[in-house]
Amino acid sequence: MTLRLTILCENSVGRPLGLIGEHGFACFLQTPSGDFLFDTGSGLGIDTNAELLNLELANLQGIILSHGHYDHVGGLAKVLARTGPINVYAHPDLFSPRVSLAGAKPRQIGVPYSREQLEQLGARFHFSREAVALTPELMISGEIPRTTDFELGDPNLCCADPNGIMHPDPLADDLSLFIKTDQGLTVLLGCAHAGLINILEYARQLTEGQDLHTVVGGTHLMFYDDQQFRQTLERLDGYHIERLGAAHCTGLQQASRLATHFGERFFFASVGTVLEI
Prior knowledge:
Blueprint: E1 4-9, E2 26-31, E3 34-38, H1 46-52, E4 62-64, H2 70-73, H3 76-83, E5 86-90, E6 99-100, E7 107-108, H4 115-120, E8 123-127, E9 132-133, E10 138-140, E11 157-160, E12 166-168, E13 176-181, E14 184-189, H5 196-206, E15 212-218, H6 226-237, E16 243-247, H7 252-262, E17 266-268, E18 274-276
Parallel strand pairs: 3-4, 4-5, 5-8, 14-15, 15-16, 16-17
Antiparallel strand pairs: 1-2, 1-18, 2-3, 6-7, 6-11, 9-10, 10-13, 11-12, 13-14
C-alpha cells in the first residue's frame, strides 16, 4: 500500500470543497500499519474537514502531538470524541505553560485542556524524550539536538518560572515524524521550533543517512532575518530535497521566497493537499 498524507488543518485552504482554514496544523496519515493523526489543529476544522475529505477519525490507530501549543493540540478533544480510548504519543513537557509575547499583551498559548480532562475523554498518553519507532514506516523523533548556530528559536515564545518571571521557552517537546519510504525519507513537521536544519540533520542521523525526499509542514521561518534565511537555504540545498511543502508558521513572505528558490519542487501544503509517497 502507498502511504498517503492529507493535510487536515492549516492556515489556508487549497480545494473548493467547503473546507475550513484555521491557524493550526494537522495531517492524516494512511499507512500499511493503519491510520494515524499528526497534530489536531486549533479545533475549528478538524472534524468538518475530515468528513469532507472522507477520512475516518474513528478508525485511527494513534495520535502524535508535535508540541504543546493550542494550534496543534486544540482539536484533540473533538478527535477523542470520535475515537474513544486511543494511544497519544508526545513529549513529557507537552503540558508545560506557554506564553506568547507577540502582540499588545502576553497570551496563553499552551494546551487548552488539562491532562486529566483528556484522559477522561480517552487519551492514553505515551510520553518519551527518545525516538520511538511507532511502525516499520513511522518514527517519532523524540527531542531534537540543537546543533546549528543560527537557529536560535522564536524570541516571542516564553514560559514562566515558579516566581512568574518570563524566560525563553526551549520548546524541548518539539517533535517531528520521520517516514521511511522506497523513495527516501519524508519528514513531517509540526512547527519546527527545534530548527528546520536541526530536525533534518537528526532525521538523517536516526535513519543512518537515508536521503531526504520530502519535507512538509510548519517550518517556523516567519521570524527569521535575511541572514538566518540565507543560511537555511544553503543547508537545504545540500540535501537535494525532491519536494518541500511549506505550511502554517512558515509565513507567507518566507513561503514565497522558498517557492522562488525551489521552483517546481515547492508546494503550499494547504488544507486538502494529498501526498502519496
